[in-house]
Write a structure and sequence with these properties.
about 300 residues, alpha/beta, 7-stranded parallel sheet, 5-stranded parallel sheet, 8 helices
Length: about 300
């Protein structure tokens, strides 16, 4: 008997041709899926509406198309494995990081303001990724891919993770989170690339801003709750920080009245650094998803299996 596969991702014919023959599939969207589809499915790939999870009694594998998985934790049948799409977005987010960090390093944010005022004025000083020390908090797929790219550009890369003794070639140095206050005064750029868990919420604490190097840049592309936006805003007016890049917020959409919108040294984007706007990201997701379909059918270990207890 074939396994029942419910597809809620925007797959094209050449993707569907890669599905193992042992699966019978239905191709739906999150809006068109119904209760009968959910009850029928043994495997679901894509974004399943949370309201349907209580009736997914036959579900044994949920393959997400996102790296974040916190909203699905403890909502699935105990017999169901949860896999995320970590590994899909490293390229897209790395290029976003390089783009926005260089914008602040080269004062492009100031020139954008000058353009509105028709003002021809040079802004100094500027800095470079080459020769800079870049501290990456979170050394998962995203952190590793970004660190590898800026290392090739001449940066000295420092990683912070839970297992600093494990070697990672993208990083010149590795430390535990307990060392962050010692490292901050030396970092030209600090990148937060963390999942959202109970342990990472507001992990970038208020006192850390006082330890940051003069003209340092802070970037958050992991999850919005890694820092307090109000504490960041206060720090930008208190300490000589160059600026910040925020692609994720604790509250999304960011309220229109929030004062951080007006900060000229903050680059704000609406959670777009890691999406399927870049086609390569979707192809990477499909590769993960097909690999897991094959592994599940053969009873082998799954890729990106989420540890429910740890949250990622």
């Amino acid at each position: 008997m074939k396994k029942h596969l419910l597809l809620l991702s925007a797959l094209k014919p050449h993707h569907l041709n890669r599905i193992p023959a042992c699966y019978e599939y239905r191709l739906k969207t999150p809006d068109s899926v119904n209760e009968e589809d959910i009850r029928w499915a043994e495997v679901i790939a894509g974004k399943v509406p949370l309201t349907y999870l209580p009736i997914a009694e036959n579900l044994r594998l949920l393959q997400l198309e996102t790296a974040g998985n916190e909203q699905y934790l403890n909502k699935l049948p105990s017999s169901c494995s949860l896999c995320n799409a970590s590994g899909s977005f490293g390229l897209a987010i790395s290029e976003y990081l390089i783009c926005t960090i260089l914008m602040l390093m080269r004062n492009i944010h100031l020139y954008q303001q000058h353009q509105k005022k028709h003002l021809w004025q040079v802004e100094e000083p500027i800095s470079s990724i080459y020769g800079s020390k870049i501290l990456v908090v979170g050394t998962g797929d995203l952190g590793k891919e970004f660190a590898g790219k800026v290392k090739m550009m001449g940066a000295h890369t420092i990683g912070i993770n839970r297992h600093p003794k494990l070697p990672l070639t993208a990083f010149d140095e590795l430390y535990g989170i307990e060392e962050i206050e010692t490292l901050l005064p030396h970092a030209d750029v600090v990148v937060l690339a963390l999942p959202s868990t109970a342990k990472t919420r507001h992990i970038f604490q208020k006192q850390y801003y006082a330890r940051m190097k003069e003209n340092a840049i802070l970037v958050n592309v992991g999850r919005g709750d890694a820092l307090s936006l109000d504490e960041l805003l206060e720090a930008l007016h208190t300490y000589p920080i160059k600026g910040a890049v925020l692609d994720v917020m604790e509250q999304e959409p960011l309220p229109q009245q929030h004062p951080i919108w007006k900060e000229t040294n903050v680059i704000l984007t609406p959670h777009i650094s890691g999406t399927f706007q870049l086609s390569e990201s979707f192809e990477r997701y499909v590769n993960i998803f097909i690999k897991n379909l094959e592994a599940y059918a053969q009873g082998k270990a799954l890729c990106n299996l989420v540890n429910i207890k740890e949250g990622y």
